[in-house]
């Protein structure tokens, strides 16, 4: 089964590029940029990559970004990830990035986008892997700040395929960003957002995302299964759900296997993804292996995740045909 999964052409749709910062690279970038880290070794740093909730994860995640300052840092980050992904037979990636987590520290938007897109270009030529960027807004900041970032992004429109929403969901419902999403749609961006597992108001947040905002897909979103009307809407509109099993196991109890099983049975376009692989120690191959083992899936069922992923990918149909 490991070889079967290894051989599958794969598509990663829920991947935070800042969440791919491995301790070794963090150390190297800190040294290059003259940043003092409070750890004596990679092992000591890896020991701090521990958390049991979204809040404790986000603290480690934002701290890691301090070493990302210059264009080559973003290039090296994305190139290291794309090499790893290509080694797992990932053919196409839609990569989230958090511009506000960088511009808020004084790193220009331009530096971030140039570094990431230069890596995407080189990886396509050198490794044959294709990638596009999804710009995420930090939902625990004001909607006006997200709107200003959206306007700033328009100069880079050709490099960014869509928008997303991440960070702390608690008290930050989709409706808060309705105007930002309306403007993004008008500018031609594709729309997704996180509806994390087992939040305070998960079902209502998913309802807002689908009915009020009109998203094209949902990141996580497994609580939709609690409301038959949402299940019907997801199927009717062909909305994809980008589920992250190993990430789930860090922030809630288990990978949400029963929910993944039910999504497959319902014919929902569910996909398996890695979220923040450097912190969760599992790239897409390991996420698929874990899901297969826990649920006892057949090869055909595992392959379904990748058919689904290419089906909901934001690529022209004729380009997709080459992958499927
Ligand atoms: C994230 Cl796991 C998770 N949830 C919300 N926002 C995030 N950003 C990066 N990883
Ligand atoms: Zn995520």
TrEMBL record:
<dbReference type="InterPro" id="IPR032466">
    <property type="entry name" value="Metal_Hydrolase"/>
</dbReference>
<feature type="site" description="Important for catalytic activity">
    <location>
        <position position="220"/>
    </location>
</feature>
<dbReference type="GO" id="GO:0006146">
    <property type="term" value="P:adenine catabolic process"/>
</dbReference>
<dbReference type="GO" id="GO:0009117">
    <property type="term" value="P:nucleotide metabolic process"/>
</dbReference>
<dbReference type="InterPro" id="IPR006330">
    <property type="entry name" value="Ado/ade_deaminase"/>
</dbReference>
<dbReference type="Pfam" id="PF00962">
    <property type="entry name" value="A_deaminase"/>
</dbReference>
<dbReference type="GO" id="GO:0008270">
    <property type="term" value="F:zinc ion binding"/>
</dbReference>
<comment type="similarity">
    <text>Belongs to the metallo-dependent hydrolases superfamily. Adenosine and AMP deaminases family. Adenine deaminase type 2 subfamily.</text>
</comment>
<comment type="function">
    <text>Catalyzes the hydrolytic deamination of adenine to hypoxanthine. Plays an important role in the purine salvage pathway and in nitrogen catabolism.</text>
</comment>
<keyword id="KW-0546">Nucleotide metabolism</keyword>
<protein>
    <recommendedName>
        <fullName>Adenine deaminase</fullName>
        <ecNumber>3.5.4.2</ecNumber>
    </recommendedName>
</protein>
<keyword id="KW-0479">Metal-binding</keyword>
<dbReference type="GO" id="GO:0005829">
    <property type="term" value="C:cytosol"/>
</dbReference>
<dbReference type="InterPro" id="IPR028892">
    <property type="entry name" value="ADE"/>
</dbReference>
<keyword id="KW-0862">Zinc</keyword>
<dbReference type="GO" id="GO:0043103">
    <property type="term" value="P:hypoxanthine salvage"/>
</dbReference>
<dbReference type="GO" id="GO:0000034">
    <property type="term" value="F:adenine deaminase activity"/>
</dbReference>
<feature type="binding site">
    <location>
        <position position="276"/>
    </location>
    <ligand>
        <name>substrate</name>
    </ligand>
</feature>
<feature type="domain" description="Adenosine deaminase">
    <location>
        <begin position="9"/>
        <end position="324"/>
    </location>
</feature>
<feature type="binding site">
    <location>
        <position position="16"/>
    </location>
    <ligand>
        <name>Zn(2+)</name>
    </ligand>
</feature>
<feature type="binding site">
    <location>
        <position position="194"/>
    </location>
    <ligand>
        <name>Zn(2+)</name>
    </ligand>
</feature>
<feature type="binding site">
    <location>
        <position position="14"/>
    </location>
    <ligand>
        <name>Zn(2+)</name>
    </ligand>
</feature>
<keyword id="KW-0378">Hydrolase</keyword>
<dbReference type="InterPro" id="IPR001365">
    <property type="entry name" value="A_deaminase_dom"/>
</dbReference>
<feature type="binding site">
    <location>
        <position position="275"/>
    </location>
    <ligand>
        <name>Zn(2+)</name>
    </ligand>
</feature>
């Amino acid at each position: 089964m490991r070889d079967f999964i290894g051989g599958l052409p794969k598509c990663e749709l829920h991947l935070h590029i800042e969440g791919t910062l491995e301790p070794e690279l963090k150390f190297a970038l800190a040294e290059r940029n003259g940043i003092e880290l409070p750890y004596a070794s990679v092992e000591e740093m890896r020991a701090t990559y521990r958390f049991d909730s979204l809040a404790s994860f986000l603290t480690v995640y934002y701290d890691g970004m301090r070493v990302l300052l210059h264009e080559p840092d973003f290039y090296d980050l994305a190139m290291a990830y794309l090499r790893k992904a290509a080694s797992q037979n990932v053919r196409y990636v839609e990569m989230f990035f958090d511009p506000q987590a960088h511009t808020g520290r004084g790193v220009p938007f331009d530096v971030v986008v140039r570094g990431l897109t230069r890596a995407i270009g080189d990886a396509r030529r050198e490794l044959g892997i294709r990638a596009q960027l999804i710009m995420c807004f930090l939902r625990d900041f004001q909607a006006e700040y997200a709107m200003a970032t959206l306007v700033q992004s328009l100069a880079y429109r050709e490099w960014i395929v869509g928008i997303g929403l991440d960070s702390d969901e608690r008290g930050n419902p989709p409706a808060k960003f309705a105007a930002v999403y309306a403007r993004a749609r008008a500018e031609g961006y594709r729309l997704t957002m996180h509806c994390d597992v087992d939040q305070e108001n998960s079902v209502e947040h998913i309802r807002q995302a689908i009915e009020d905002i009109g998203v094209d897909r949902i990141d996580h979103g497994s609580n939709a299964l609690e409301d038959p009307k949402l299940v019907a809407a997801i199927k009717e509109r062909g909305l994809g759900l980008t589920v992250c099993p190993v990430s789930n196991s860090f922030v809630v109890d288990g990978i949400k296997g029963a929910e993944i099983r039910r999504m497959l049975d319902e014919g929902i376009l569910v996909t398996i993804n890695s979220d923040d692989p450097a912190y969760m120690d599992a790239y897409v191959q390991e996420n698929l292996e874990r899901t297969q083992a826990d649920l006892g899936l057949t090869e055909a069922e595992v392959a379904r995740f990748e058919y689904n992923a290419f089906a909901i990918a934001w690529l022209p149909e004729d380009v997709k045909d080459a992958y499927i």
